[in-house]
Amino acid sequence: MMNKKNVVKATGIAAAVVIAASGTVHAINAAPSYSAVEVKKSVIEGSVKESGKIHGADDKVYYAAVTAPIESISVKLGDKVKKGDTVVKYDDSELKHMLDEAEIKSNMAELEYKGSVEKSNDYAQKYQKAVNDDDAYAALYWLYREKGNEISEEEFNRIYQIQCQIDSVNKEIAEKEKEISESQHKKNKATGYGTKSEDDYSESNVKNIKDAQKDIDRLNTELAELKKQLNVTSEGAVTPDENSEMNDVNNVMEDITRNWTEAKSNKAAYEGNILKEDEKKALEKNSELTKKEAEQVSEDYVKATDGIKSEFSGIVTELNVHDGAYVTEGTPLFTVENSENLVCRVDISKYDILDIKEGQEAEVDISGRKYSGTVTKINSLAKADSSDKTNVEVEVSIDGADEAAIIGLEADVTIYTEKSENTLTVPVEAFYSDNDGDYCYVISNGKIEKKYVKSGINNGENVEITEGLESGDIVITDAVTDKNVGEKAKYVLN
Length: 494
Prior knowledge:
This protein is 39% helix and 31% strand. By secondary structure, it is of the alpha+beta class. The chain has three domains: 3-57 and 341-493, Efflux pump adaptor protein, beta barrel domain (Elongation Factor Tu (Ef-tu), domain 3); 68-85 and 310-337, no CATH class; 87-307.
């Protein structure tokens, strides 16, 4: 069974009519004649043909640079824009207010940080002075305490002995005063407590009175001596110099204790007002954060005042917003396709994509106008079309595009995939295939033969033959079947 690879011309002749030179027609048992070609070496190029759409070589989606209301949009869908044209203007009044507020917060945070650190440093200095004072007063306290204790053990013993003597004298004085009181009582009793006159005194009374008076005088003398001794002893306990020195030491100790207590109190108070390192870091980070926030708002404000400009000349192919819209940062606004450099994007099937390479030459046909082109990009991701067939998008540049090349128009693209020079070729009408391989029908020695071949490039018009035929062979281009093999045949070269 035979299968044609391409369309075959139905020009087979069932019977040949031979016109003799004499004009006589011979039709009895004449060999049939077939259209044929002579196999020759030539140049053949493979190609893939598909339809696609015209696009800008570069396209860019422009997104909202800031969160703000849109004041105005200067284009409509399909409009041309030039490089540097302002397409979108923002209403920047809200951002200006935010910027003023952010700068105030940033300045306040910086002042708070610097002020707190300076105050902390001041307290740190005061704290260090209080620490030094604490240490100094502590040293002075123990110094003067030792000085107050410089009185030797012998002096303590001496003072103790003197004190014992003073206590003993005081005791004797007390006893003498008691005896004097008792003698006075006897005297008063002998005199009748002033009720008797001397004439009434008996001899015993007079004696008692005199004895009592003698005792009183004696005791008073002894008492006076004891008091004198007491004064002398008391004065010997502590010398004036010792007493003055001890008073000075006690006064200094009081001053030291008071100042030492104050230093300790100040130390505790100042220490509580010194910032810790993590507290300083927190204030510093807060200052940095508010500063960055202000810088960010400032950048947004600059972006808003600048608006959005087109980065190249082109056509607006998408427009997603209108005047007055409030957009958030990142919202897609419009798309511009470059109109200076155009390409045609075509979808290539899985059967042909392996033949496509970047840099291959191509031809782009736009409404009858043909432009040369080059394969510039092969997408790395396949996609399914409306019929769920998988294709790969290929981009072909268009050289010398003019006003006929309008973005969005359809175009026919021929991509030249391979090229062989000085190679044998046959028309596709002479090329067949079956289960055993590719083959052609040839006329050799006046008979039809079937020859299996190996093929190369097939561009839809001609097929490259790499094995099985030789230059000069005659291949039939009319419709022939295996039934005709072995039959006599004539040919007419095309």
